[in-house]
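Table S5 (text form). Sequence records supplied for joint modeling of the two-component complex.
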Amino acid sequence: MAKLESKTPAGPLADKWQRHKTEIKLVNPANKRKYEIIVVGAGLAGSSAAATLAELGYRVKNFVFHDSPRRAHSIAAQGGINAAKNYQNDGDSVHRLFYDTLKGGDYRAREANVHRLAEVSVNIIDQCAAQGVPFAREYGGLLANRSFGGAQVSRTFYARGQTGQQLLLGAYSALSRMVGQGGVELHTNSEMLDLVVVDGHAKGIIVRDLITGAITRHSADAVVLATGGYGNVFNLSTYARQSNATAIWRAYKRGACLANPCYTQIHPTCIPVSGDYQSKLTLMSESLRNDGRIWVPKKKEDAKKNPADIAEADRDYYLERIYPSFGNLAPRDVSSRAAMRMCEEGRGVGETGLGVYLDFSDAIKRLGEPAVRERYGNLFDIYHEITAENAYQTPMRIFPAVHYTMGGLWVDYNLMSNIPGLFVLGEANFSDHGANRLGASALMQGLADGYFVIPYTIGDYLAGQKPGAKTLTDRAEFTQAEQNVTAMTQRFLSNKGKQPVSHYHKRLGKIMWEHCGMARTRAGLEAALQKIPALRAEFWADVLVPGSADTLNQSLEQAGRVADFIELGELLCRDALTREESCGGHFREEYQHPDGECKRDDEKFGHVAAWEYQGEGQTPLRNTEPLNYEFTKMSVRSYK
Amino acid sequence: MVAEKPSKKLFSVTLRVWRQPGPAAPGKFVEYPAANVNPDMSFLELLDVVNDGLTVKGEEPIAFAHDCREGICGTCSCTINGKPHGPGHGIATCQLYMRSFQDGDVIVVEPFRAKAFPIQRDLVTDRAAFDKIQQAGGFISVRTGAAPDANSIPVPKEDADLAMDAAACIGCGACVAACKNASAMLFVAAKVSHLGLMPQGQPERDRRVLAMVQTMDAAGFGNCTNQYECSAVCPKNITHDFIARLNRDYAKALFRTRFKPVSGAAAGGAG
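The corresponding structure-token record, covering 911 residues in total, follows.
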């Protein structure tokens, strides 16, 4: 049974982080260069961590599977980044940001972690502005803000609709600077395929060079994973096509606990699936719901009609009808589930019947087309590019899609997993968003972890370790891990199956979406737990991976990732089955209030579920970490 | 019209694709017929489908670079019918949809070609030279934690907006592939302009432009001869006006170094 100590410091909430920083151990500057740190991933969390650790004097090796660190999927975040600057003088404060984030997470995150996140949010904006990130400005030259969901203040900083891109390029520039100075050794096209644990401590990784196929061993005094979320377990999502869970999954199989995998966020406004060939879903910013009205036909037989031919009286503006006080701005999870119910009733629109209308005709009548174009023009353009439809003339069709995972590897307050020396940052960990993430909070967390948390907390671990893991690569643990990787590669390439990898990924995605998507039931999850192991057996028996191990082989890369997704999908369903409550991004139909809101069970499930691997074919162990709310009351989340 | 979309009319095309097994191996065009093409498919989704077909037949699929599939990561990099990112305007390869083509079309697909972007396999090229240029000077030196309050440095809105126009570069390399000289001037100009327009970027202004240009030259990119093919294919519509800024910055920096040495290792050689 894993030991899960949160190591949350004692003392008043607002003093915990300050006090912790002064109490944890330091590594003196001359000694820092004796320590090597591996950072895997170069999104916001990975590149900010690699750059900052190198600035401090540690020797950093950064591994990314992309051809450049600038390609990581943080780049695609649109909306913005929250910070408690109170530049608007509208009553914001660190405490308010803390409270909104904790409540948004449906009271399933650690208080102390969330408070620290709110505290360092202000430093992030300073840091990014100093790097030259071209944030939106007011005419006076000061920073502009916009409002976002789940908050009553205006605290979101942004750079047009490309905030993630600009923040990532800022972190990438800091990383590039340290690569240029020799502080970071950058390994691009390098995918981590195993974690090496020596005497109970994380001491290295096994890496495949995606261009040459070479498998290499890398040792270090600590390993930092910042490899993102696992939403592609659903196959179709707003994630990048190559986003994967391999690094965290293989760490899990080496003993790191995976916490709350069932907390998945489904975004209500995405462009619907158009066919079997589909590879990706595209998000349309939820700001559209400010002026668009969502509806489906009242009668099933109208679903295939041209929307212009459906009379006003035959339209069901179901969000306005069911949630009169919130209407079209009902929370993300509520809106997503309502859309699904409409489609289940056979009233979904579009070719596949999986879509609802988002209609701007009233807004255009009220404001005029130029005003609508001014507000949302770029989104209408994206919509047109993908669907060839003109949303000024006909309603958009939208449908929910997976776009973030709150679960991830379990970490303590220092962001260290239950394997000493293994740290996990950003979306890859589970720590700050509880059961649901608010908009504009992902960028905040990635950069908080990388710039302002890990540089302090990693020293506390390293100070207790003798430097010099360099000599370890000859150890049996490295040999065994490398053989593990090679054996898997050989197994794929020698398997004379009949179906390409994508075939299994699609089938897994369908099982996950049907049984473990927006609404989950005991029966559905039990069915999934039958279907997934069967799919896994079929995958290993019949997958066809062409080519060889010693070249660029994208089928081989995908095969390993999908093998891991199949296993992770099973764990996700198991977690969803055992969490007999609804909270945030986990909705069990059996547990809801009469109005369809999540019904939590704080008594029985006010805890973190951290799963521990027990070996091939064994049921994993469900460890729990109680969530002790010292300063806030767990209450019913209401936005009415 | 819209919801009235009956089944879309499917059509057929022929892909003529550059196949090259490895960096040193010779390459050639190979034709692949593609039937039942849905106009709502993206071009990369068609490649996915063709690849699954090849795999099932026991052939090796076409290697191509891709990731976000929403035009922001800059990974995808095909030259389609002779134009980097294909026939659209202001889009990356992943944003190209099959409705841009017609039944019977022959679509020629090649990697981005430039001396500084060696081919790794099929349609995948090595664009590490761009990272090298960034590492030489594409940054503002600010240690984590050393930043002043963000609002202590006001930036005129016009400057911030123009900086953002330049900063929108996704680093795909289409500008290089389109240029007859394989010049990376638009890419370098975008970064130099973005940082040069911000007050935070002033202290390192001369050093940055000299170091980046020097590294660009060393990587084997050609010079700009003002044809503007680069901005014509840029998926983010970055204007060649920024190249004028780069040239001005470079000339000024060079001039100033005659009188005042510029700190930093890379500065001297650019003249």
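Note: Residues 267-401 of chain A form a domain with the Flavocytochrome C3; Chain A, domain 1 fold (CATH 3.90.700.10).
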